[in-house]
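Severity: low
Component: inverse-folding endpoint
Summary: output formatting inconsistent between runs
Steps to reproduce: submit the following structure tokens with default settings.
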């Protein structure tokens, strides 16, 4: 949106920006006070304005237009007008505009769409699109809606700050309803998608997930007119004990840990301000059926049954039926007031919560504005003479330019807080610094304006999706109905600083002004601005900007440079300035390296020989401050190539300087050695390493690969990254390159085998870029033999992939490759530590959610929409996730068994990088982890295997019901603790359930490996895939699970044999038959199956031959009667070659003993099959 500057006062430090909303198709001009009677709300993105009065409303949306000067500007134009009320007599009482974040990965912080939420005097809350289409309506309380307020996600500025949940709060005269933001976001998206589908094709109505909300009955306050939902807070121990003593008396008990509470602050009368605290978990969230409002023929039958649904284009009878059947209104949970600010004569009118959730401004009928400290519950400041005041807040971050020159630049950016007060009686807008600061700005505005402060940003943003976003939102806007102008107030950060710091902030503003002047070719004025800058570091940066600009003439540059030279020389900034320009122009330097290196060498020699540069008393055995300054610039530079050239030149210059100072007696026989030279040798070696690493990181990823931009590296960043910083950078590169774990293993194994490496280069299908990346990876690993040892690199790759998977759980391949990288780690100690960290950080919560979801649903999980809501991923991704859980726990068990056989590895770094300070590497953290309890890991692996089997084969099962109480209690505990595990013989009923489930798994596997699309049966024993439902390891897994679940494995083997024969897979059945122990029982089972096959061939086949009929007549009566009793419909593959059936009967004769009761029957079957085969 293009905003042109508009100065309200003569104060140059505060400016506003405005744009004129144009109301199309509205020609009548009303008097100015009309706005005071309207309900007005503005989206925090300033792209949607809502005006409502009684039952009517107008939506104004942002639109581009061309002005007379030819430039484009953004205006607000009417996009929809109409009547919002559905019930007779109800009026609009409150509204807000909530922008919803886009879920696309390419989004950078712009809203996907904006939802208009409107509250009515009837108690209804309705949700509309920007075009006035009703999405859903809710009746949560049968009193007029007083205020609607929203809270969205804010990135915590400091560690330890409680992360607040998104929510929509609705205030009624004696009740407060809070709707969970995540639930609301999902419901609004579902309703909007359904509206789009219905408008396009009239599709079926899909019921969106219900809204989760809490309803509190606010007690002990006479009148309530406004509120603020502060969010979740946790008291310190002292405050907890104080509250317990006040509320419970001397004998009050205190819990071990302070409970988390939601704080609500209300204003009104009796008392003037009330503080309410709702302990988390004291009230379960209520579920409201979402009322869809979709114009579709298919929905007419649903309106009468679904409570609270409102539709479009219904006839009169349908409307009356809907209105008569109002939805059920849940009762409110009573919530007593904790304390208040009593003032019998004063009545509060509004409350405005600060962005940091610690302060609030309250207006009252006495014309006062009161500042509240919400944590302490006290009034800390009061302003008089502001009748009918309107409030807003401005939170201004510290400017990045100012932070770069601050000694505390490594700390988080500071924020300044300002309170904006609009006094309509006086027509003035004031800005006050918090908490006890002065008034920093005053603007003369109209007396009929409306101050618009949203207090929230985009809904649907969280800690993961907000990374890298720049939210384009305004904080405070002023709407003037007379001029049709919407103004925004911008306050510089330095107005909140003391005088000394304000001087430096003023220099930053002068630097910005200089940048503007250079862009407009104002060289003469730029000189005066540059000379007015007092701060040395900012003056240095200004000169760098001047030298890098192409607009000023040479004479201007010479004049300015000479005027600044003395100042920079006194402060030792000349070499710093010279190298900064050198490093910024890396491409130009590399185009003519010989010439530029020669010139740099000459300049460094000349500067070092100047008076005051290198001290005369400097001892070559110590470090020179002047040369240390040059070295620091090279260490901090991200331009590794230019920095390396500069370091080589400086090393040569230092060597010449030391040689000239060396003792003449030693000069001819000994080479001068000093600490300064050693420092330069280390710096050059480090820059060589950085250059190779940076070249690798800049290799572009393949098209369509995931991952962000390549990270810039320098000596400083690598040292600050700790011992694992280098491996972490390379692991991110591996992720961006989408390099498979096995491929990475091949490259690392071949880095020492040049012959194999040559074969690798000639391998077909490898592109030039891929070959280049592999060469560079080998080169980087050779330069960092310790930091990039295979185990460390695999460990960091494993962690990178699991972190990326956690950001997007639908990408199951990321977790699979994380487990594969972990499997490639050779050290069991590192494997065990990473497994436990992955389990506790990323896996256990989702696994427990999946288990409890499958336990509670009444149908198969794939049919449940709660799969995404509970576990955070769809059914396919959840199947892959469960398979990875099984593999992870298997790796953990193998590592735990092997740790005692080998010693823990000793991690080291390269000599030149031993000064690394920062976080420990993943491998170091892994070695610090405690050992695990093997039976508990095996217990969880058993559960994960059952869950994986159920999801793979679409089986309905209650997995936790397959375990006794001890087994259930042991689940999802810390793997390092010793739990009470199931022991002894299990209950026969439980064993029967387990056996039934395993038999169903085996049946599903046999059905999966058969190709139903082919009319001919599968008779060959072709190799099966290694993953998925057709994997060859499912039978052995079921047998292993059976032994752990106390299920007889021979029953499972016999079941596999029978199922394979049933499917017509005779060769695979014969392989499994060799392992069956109880051949008698198997023979009896296969005898029935053989009879079914023969019965189908003789009695039920459509292609019966004359020979078959004659053979049937010659059969013994007992055999004929037995065949007629067989039911071939139980066979999934009844049509099999007679040769296979003959082979099966032969196997029967072999496994059945002669004294078996059915041995003679088997002989008759053999004769019948041989006769039938002969006839064919």
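Observed output (run 2 of 3):
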């Amino acid at each position: 949106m293009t905003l042109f500057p508009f100065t309200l006062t003569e104060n140059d430090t505060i400016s506003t920006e405005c744009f004129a909303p144009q109301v199309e198709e509205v020609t009548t001009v009303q008097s100015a006070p009309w706005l005071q009677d309207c309900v007005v709300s503005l989206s925090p993105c300033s792209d949607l304005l809502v005006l409502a009065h009684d039952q009517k409303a107008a939506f104004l949306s942002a639109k581009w237009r061309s002005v007379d000067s030819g430039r484009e500007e953004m205006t607000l134009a009417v996009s929809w007008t109409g009547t919002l009320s559905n019930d007779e007599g109800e009026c609009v009482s409150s509204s807000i505009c909530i922008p919803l974040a886009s879920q696309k990965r390419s989004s950078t912080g712009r809203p996907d769409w904006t939802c208009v939420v409107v509250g009515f005097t009837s108690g209804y809350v309705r949700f509309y699109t920007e075009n006035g289409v009703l999405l859903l309506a809710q009746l949560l309380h049968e009193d007029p809606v007083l205020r609607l307020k929203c809270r969205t996600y804010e990135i915590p500025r400091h560690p330890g700050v409680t992360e607040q949940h998104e929510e929509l709060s609705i205030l009624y005269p004696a009740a407060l309803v809070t709707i969970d933001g995540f639930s609301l976001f999902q419901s609004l998206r579902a309703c909007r998608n359904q509206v789009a589908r219905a408008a396009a094709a009239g599709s079926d109505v899909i019921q969106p997930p219900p809204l989760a909300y809490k309803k509190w009955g606010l007690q002990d306050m006479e009148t309530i007119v406004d509120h603020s939902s502060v969010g979740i807070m946790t008291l310190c121990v002292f405050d907890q004990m104080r509250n317990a003593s006040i509320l419970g008396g001397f004998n009050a008990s205190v819990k071990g840990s302070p409970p988390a509470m939601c704080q609500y602050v209300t204003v009104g009368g009796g008392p003037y301000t009330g503080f309410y605290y709702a302990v988390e978990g004291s009230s379960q969230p209520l579920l409201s059926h979402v009322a869809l409002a979709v114009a579709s023929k298919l929905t007419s039958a649903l309106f009468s049954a679904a409570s609270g649904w409102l539709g479009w284009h219904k006839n009169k009878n349908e409307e009356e039926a809907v209105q008569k059947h109002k939805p059920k209104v849940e009762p409110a949970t009573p919530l007593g007031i904790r304390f208040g600010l009593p003032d019998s004569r004063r009545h509060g009118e509004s409350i405005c919560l600060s962005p940091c959730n610690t302060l609030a401004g309250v207006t009252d009928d006495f014309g006062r504005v009161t500042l509240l400290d919400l944590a302490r519950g006290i009034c800390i400041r009061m302003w008089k003479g502001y009748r009918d005041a309107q409030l807003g807040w401005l939170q201004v971050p510290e400017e990045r330019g100012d932070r770069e020159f601050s000694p505390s630049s490594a700390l988080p950016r500071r924020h300044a807080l300002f309170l904006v007060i609009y006094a309509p009686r006086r027509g003035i807008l004031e800005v006050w610094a918090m908490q006890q600061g002065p008034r920093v700005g005053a603007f003369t505005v109209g007396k009929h304006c409306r101050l618009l402060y949203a207090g929230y940003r985009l809904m649907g943003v969280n800690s993961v999706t907000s990374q890298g976003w720049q939210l384009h939102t305004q904080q405070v806007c002023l709407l003037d109905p007379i001029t049709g102008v919407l103004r925004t107030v911008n306050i510089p950060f330095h107005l909140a600083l003391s005088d000394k710091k304000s001087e430096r902030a003023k220099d930053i503003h002068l630097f910005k002004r200089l940048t503007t002047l250079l862009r407009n070719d104002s060289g003469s004025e730029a000189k005066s601005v540059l000379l007015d800058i007092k701060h040395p570091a900012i003056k240095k940066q200004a000169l760098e900007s001047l030298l890098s600009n192409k607009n000023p003439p040479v004479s201007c540059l010479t004049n300015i440079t000479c005027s600044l030279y003395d100042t920079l020389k006194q402060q030792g900034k000349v070499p710093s300035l010279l190298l900064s320009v050198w490093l910024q122009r890396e491409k130009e330097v590399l185009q003519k390296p010989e010439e530029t290196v020669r010139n740099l060498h000459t300049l460094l020699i000349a500067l070092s020989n100047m008076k005051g540069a290198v001290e005369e008393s400097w001892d070559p055995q110590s470090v020179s401050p002047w040369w240390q300054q040059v070295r620091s610039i090279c260490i901090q530079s991200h331009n590794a190539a230019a920095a390396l050239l500069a370091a080589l030149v400086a090393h040569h210059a230092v060597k010449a300087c030391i040689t000239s100072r060396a003792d003449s007696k030693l000069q001819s026989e000994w080479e001068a050695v000093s600490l300064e030279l050693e420092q330069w040798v280390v710096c050059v070696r480090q820059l060589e390493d950085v250059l190779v690493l940076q070249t690798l990181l800049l290799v572009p990823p393949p098209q369509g690969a995931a991952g962000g931009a390549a990270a810039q590296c320098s000596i400083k960043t690598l040292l600050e990254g700790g011992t694992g910083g280098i491996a972490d950078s390379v692991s991110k590169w591996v992720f961006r390159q989408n390099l498979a774990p096995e491929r990475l293993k091949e490259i690392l194994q071949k880095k020492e085998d040049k012959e194999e490496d040559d074969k690798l280069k000639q391998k077909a299908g490898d592109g030039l870029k891929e070959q280049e990346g592999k060469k560079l990876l080998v080169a980087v690993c050779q330069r960092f033999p310790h930091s990039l040892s295979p185990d460390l690199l695999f460990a960091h790759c494993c962690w990178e992939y699991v972190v990326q998977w956690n950001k997007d759980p639908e990408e199951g391949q990321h977790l699979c490759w994380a487990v594969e990288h972990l499997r490639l780690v050779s050290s069991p100690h590192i494997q065990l530590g990473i497994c436990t960290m992955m389990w506790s950080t990323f896996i256990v919560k989702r696994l427990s959610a999946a288990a409890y979801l499958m336990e509670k649903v009444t149908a198969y999980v794939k049919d449940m929409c709660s799969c995404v809501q509970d576990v955070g991923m769809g059914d396919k991704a959840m199947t892959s996730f469960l398979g990875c859980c099984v593999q992870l726990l298997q790796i953990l068990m193998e590592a735990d068994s092997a740790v005692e056989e080998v010693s823990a590895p000793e991690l080291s770094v390269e000599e030149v990088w031993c000064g690394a300070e920062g976080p420990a590497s993943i491998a170091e953290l892994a070695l610090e982890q405690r050992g695990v309890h093997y039976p508990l890991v095996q217990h969880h692996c058993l559960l994960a295997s059952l869950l994986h089997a159920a999801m793979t084969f679409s089986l309905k099962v209650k997995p936790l019901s397959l375990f006794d109480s001890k087994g259930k209690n042991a689940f999802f505990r810390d793997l390092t603790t010793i739990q009470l595990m199931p022991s002894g013989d299990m209950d026969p009923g439980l064993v029967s359930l387990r056996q039934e489930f395993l038999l169903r798994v085996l049946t599903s596997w046999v059905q999966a490996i058969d190709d139903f699309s082919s009319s001919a049966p599968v008779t060959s024993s072709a190799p099966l895939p290694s993953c998925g439902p057709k994997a060859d390891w499912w039978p052995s897994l079921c047998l292993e699970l059976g032994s752990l679940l106390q299920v007889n494995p021979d029953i499972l083997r016999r079941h596999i044999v029978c199922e394979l024969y049933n499917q017509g897979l005779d060769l695979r059945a014969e392989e499994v038959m060799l392992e069956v122990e109880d051949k008698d029982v198997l023979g009896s089972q296969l005898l029935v199956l053989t009879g079914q096959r023969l019965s189908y061939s003789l009695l039920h086949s459509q292609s019966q031959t004359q020979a078959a009929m004659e053979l049937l007549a010659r059969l013994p009566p007992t055999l004929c009667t037995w065949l007629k009793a067989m039911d071939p419909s139980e066979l999934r593959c009844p049509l099999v070659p007679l040769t296979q059936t003959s082979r099966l009967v032969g196997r029967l004769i072999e496994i059945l003993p002669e004294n078996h009761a059915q041995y003679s029957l088997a002989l008759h079957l053999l004769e019948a099959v041989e006769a039938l085969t002969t006839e064919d």
